């Protein structure tokens, strides 16, 4: 009798524990914000737009921007912002009700686009008008989405410091870049280049984003594979970028003295105060640095200071989300009109400091230095090579985007810090070349 | 017949013995299930993975036999990190000697013994991450105009020394010594407590006898204390070997494994989660597991040996074995 009581007691206890554990896994963390407008105007047609920019929905600037469109088309535009855009919208797309206009989540496969979105035009028409027109295109060359803006790769610098050093023309080659950094070291108190090396595992990978621009080849990854190039071929993209890094890091005058001092958050403030002159960072960082700066206009962004082997300078651009029109919407035509207006006329991208989507548009102020540079988008990978680059990257252990302790970037940086000279650099890259070509031989056959 | 047997079993269950059995089994069921589910199953899987080439999602793993193990022992990038364990091993010998010295001092007649014991043991109680962050600041040189000097350089400056770069990319040895020092500082408290325990278990009549014979403190240590705590010393040394192989948090937080301070465990984690070679990382984990098992077996062997010797000796000296 007693034994049974004990047994049932234990069973009940385990059951309760189990359920409690299972239940604590559930939770509701929806964080949606929708724009509320008092006094609806117009004929009562409401266009629902789903967006990831909760910041611009919350501060009302999107609504303000849209007033002109609402008046001209006699309608009301309602913005719904999602903090976890891709996740929440994917759920809504399980039904037919996912707004009238929305940013196309990248999880939607290109061949599925026609099931969800209204075609906006053919690629041949669209590419005349818009950049990145092929980003949301299916195999029959119908375009389902237009990007609302894009970003370019480059180098972050403090304009005030650079001009205080007497530099008027931005560097176009690696040598000019280093000469300018030396000038800054000489004439100002600022640290010419800040390595952020304590957080090297990600800060050093920022250099990798310069590679395609430096190569001047929109399909550089594909070229490496098809022509079986050395990864660090001297007339390619990797060699000039990492040689530049090696040269800068080798000169103790040009970087901070104790590379373990880094504090990422403080470095943003120091940058704004003009104590740091330059950092290689993606353009995603511009906004963050401007936020921390006393004078946000000081934060400049220059194109990659490397001239490609063909004598021109390039900057790789990439688009942000693309706007698409819900196929099941009642207001398809109005939706299309909205997309065209938002991308062409609203001025949203320029206001956000992004590259506007229209081909002939002027670059925003913070990218004005890109005017003499050819912008290109990374070329799509041909079907037979899809995934091969990553496969070789993993198999060889080279890890071009990695920052682990035996990654070539770390080895190059530490050889430079230790003042080991050019030969060490050569031996590191020839080692990487060998690893890469061995793996390429086994993957590509 | 069977019915009778079953009845007998049921009756047995109702007895005190039977109930004890049922309850123990039930209580053991939950922890055992957790242990199997979260330790043994993953460990067995890991051994399986170590013979595969696989990425972090485990899509289309490919059986490659001993290739991963070959890579570990042939590619200098991998096995060479054991070299850094030698720094920690050397450091742990210093640590044991220092701990023994401090323990002997703390066992003699001095004031405020408890306070000193507390101070020396305190670092061991602190979280390893906190210790590492403290020492990250400690060794900094700092950047003129941006960030203040580290603690060590500020103190040295009070004595007129020039501030210097302690974590220096040009001198991986110095950087490693700095990290070994942190490890020593953190773990020495535990060793001291172990030695104090061992020393205090020595019967005081031995000291009295040696006093009568006119032994000096060194002789007393050499012929009484040292032989009595020999098993503890050998245990500590073997634990030190284990610790030296699996150093992780101190270098990972202070230098992130850069400046030539990477260890085998850091490399394993990077291989799995940053280079995405899960098969190779599993093989590294298996190698580490095997080394640890070997060291543990050696430790068991030595420890048992020491105990038996003592028992034998006690028998010989006619004091008998008391349990």
Describe this structure in words.
The complex is a heterodimer of chains A (445) and B (323). Chain A has 445 residues and is α/β, with parallel strands linked by helices. Helix content of chain A is 42%, strand content 13%. Chain A has a 6-stranded mixed beta sheet with strand order 1-3-2-4-14-7. Chain A has a 4-stranded mixed beta sheet with strand order 10-11-9-12. Chain A has a 3-stranded mixed beta sheet with strand order 8-13-15. In chain A, helix 13 (264-273) packs across helix 14 (284-292) and helix 17 (388-396) crosses helix 19. With 323 residues, chain B is mainly α. Chain B has a single domain (68-310), classed as Orthogonal Bundle (MetI-like fold), CATH 1.10.3720. The longest helix of chain B has 39 residues, at 278-316. Mean pLDDT of chain B is 85; it is low at 319-323.
The level of helicity of chain B is: over 70%
**Hey, roughly how much beta strand do the residues of chain B contain?**
under 5%
> What is the 3D form of chain A?
globular
For the biggest sheet of chain A, the summary is:
6 strands, mixed
Q: What do the pLDDT scores of chain A average to?
A: 84
Count of helical regions of chain B: 14
Strand content of chain A: 5-15%
CATH topology term of chain B: MetI-like fold
Most extensive interface: pair and counts? A-B, 37 and 41 residues
Number of strands of chain B: 2
Going by CATH, the architecture of the largest domain in chain A would be 3-Layer(aba) Sandwich
Q: How large is the count of helical segments of chain A?
A: 19
Termini separation of chain A (Å)? 72 Å
Helix/strand class of chain A = alpha/beta
Q: How much is the radius of gyration of chain A in Å?
A: 26 Å
The amount of helix of chain A comes to 40-55%
Superfamily at the CATH H level of the largest domain in chain A?
Periplasmic binding protein-like II
What integer value in Å does the Rg of chain B equal?
27 Å
Just give the CATH class of the largest domain in chain A: Alpha Beta
Question: How many domains make up the 3D coordinates of chain A?
Answer: 2
CATH class descriptor of chain B: Mainly Alpha
């Amino acid at each position: 009798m007693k034994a049974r009581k004990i047994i049932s007691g234990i069973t009940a206890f385990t059951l309760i524990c189990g359920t409690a554990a299972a239940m604590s896994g559930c939770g509701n963390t929806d964080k949606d914000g929708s724009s509320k407008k008092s006094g609806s105007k117009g004929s009562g047609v409401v266009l629902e737009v789903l967006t990831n920019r909760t910041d611009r929905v919350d501060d009302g600037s999107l609504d303000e921007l849209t007033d002109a469109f609402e008046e001209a088309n006699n309608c009301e535009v309602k913005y719904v912002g999602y903090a976890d855009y891709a996740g929440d919208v994917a759920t809504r797309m399980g039904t037919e009700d996912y707004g009238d206009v929305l940013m196309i989540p990248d999880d939607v496969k290109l061949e599925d686009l026609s099931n969800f979105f209204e075609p906006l035009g053919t690629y041949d028409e669209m590419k005349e008008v818009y950049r990145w027109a092929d980003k949301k295109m299916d195999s029959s060359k119908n375009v389902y989405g237009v990007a609302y803006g894009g970003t370019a790769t480059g180098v972050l610098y403090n304009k005030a410091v650079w001009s205080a050093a007497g530099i008027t023309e931005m560097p176009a080659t690696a040598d000019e870049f280093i000469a300018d950094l030396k000038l800054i070291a000489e004439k100002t108190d600022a640290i010419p280049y800040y390595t952020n090396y304590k957080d090297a595992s990600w800060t050093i990978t920022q250099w990798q984003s310069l590679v395609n621009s430096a190569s001047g080849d929109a399909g550089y990854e594909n070229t490496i594979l098809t022509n079986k190039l050395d990864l660090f071929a001297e007339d390619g993209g990797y060699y000039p970028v990492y040689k530049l890094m090696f040269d800068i890091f080798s000169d103790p005058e040009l970087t901070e003295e104790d590379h373990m001092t880094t504090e990422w958050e403080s470095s943003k403030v120091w940058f704004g105060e003009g104590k740091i002159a330059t950092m290689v960072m993606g353009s995603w960082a511009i906004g963050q640095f401007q936020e921390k700066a006393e004078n946000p206009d000081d934060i400049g962004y220059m194109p990659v200071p490397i001239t490609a082997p063909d004598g021109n300078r390039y900057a790789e651009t990439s688009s942000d989300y693309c706007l698409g029109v819900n196929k099941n919407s009642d207001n398809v035509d109005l939706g299309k009109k909205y997309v065209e207006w938002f991308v062409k006329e609203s001025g949203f991208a320029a206001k956000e400091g992004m590259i506007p989507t229209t081909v002939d548009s002027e670059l925003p102020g913070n990218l004005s230095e890109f005017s003499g540079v050819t912008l290109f988008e990374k070329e799509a990978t041909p079907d037979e090579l899809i995934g091969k680059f990553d496969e070789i990257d993993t198999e060889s252990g080279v890890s071009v985007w990695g920052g682990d302790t035996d990654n070539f970037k770390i080895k190059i940086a530490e050889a430079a810090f230790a003042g080991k000279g050019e030969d060490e650099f050569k031996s590191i890259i020839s080692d990487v070349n060998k690893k890469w070509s061995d793996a390429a031989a086994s993957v590509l056959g | 017949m069977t019915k009778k047997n079953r009845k007998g079993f049921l009756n047995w269950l109702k007895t005190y013995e039977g109930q004890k059995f049922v309850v123990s089994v039930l209580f053991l069921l939950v922890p055992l299930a957790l242990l199997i589910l979260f330790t043994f199953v993953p460990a067995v899987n890991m051994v399986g993975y170590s013979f595969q080439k696989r990425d972090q999602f485990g899509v289309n793993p490919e059986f490659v036999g001993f290739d991963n193990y070959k890579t570990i022992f042939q590619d200098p990038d991998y096995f060479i990190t054991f070299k850094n364990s030698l720094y920690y091993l050397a450091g742990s010998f210093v640590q044991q000697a220092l701990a023994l010295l401090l323990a002997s001092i703390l066992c003699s007649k001095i004031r405020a013994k408890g306070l000193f014991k507390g101070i020396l043991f305190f670092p061991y109680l602190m979280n390893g991450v906190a210790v590492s962050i403290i020492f990250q600041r400690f060794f900094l040189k700092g950047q003129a105009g941006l960030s203040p000097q580290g603690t060590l350089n500020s103190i040295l400056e009070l004595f007129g020394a020039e501030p210097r770069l302690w974590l220096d990319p040009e001198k991986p040895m110095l950087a490693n010594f700095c990290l070994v020092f942190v490890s020593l500082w953190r773990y020495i408290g535990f060793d001291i407590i172990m030695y104090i325990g061992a020393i205090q278990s020595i019967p005081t009549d031995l000291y009295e006898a040696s006093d009568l014979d006119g032994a000096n403190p060194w002789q007393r240590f050499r012929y009484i204390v040292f032989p009595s705590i020999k098993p503890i010393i050998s245990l500590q040394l073997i634990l030190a070997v284990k610790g030296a192989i699996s150093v992780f948090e101190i270098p990972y937080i202070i230098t992130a494994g850069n400046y030539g301070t990477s260890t085998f465990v850091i490399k394993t984690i990077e291989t799995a989660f940053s280079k995405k070679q899960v098969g190779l990382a599993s093989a590294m984990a298996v190698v580490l597991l095997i080394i640890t098992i070997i060291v543990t077996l050696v430790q068991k062997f030595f420890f048992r040996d020491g105990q038996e010797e003592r028992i034998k000796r006690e028998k010989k000296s006619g004091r008998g074995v008391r349990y």
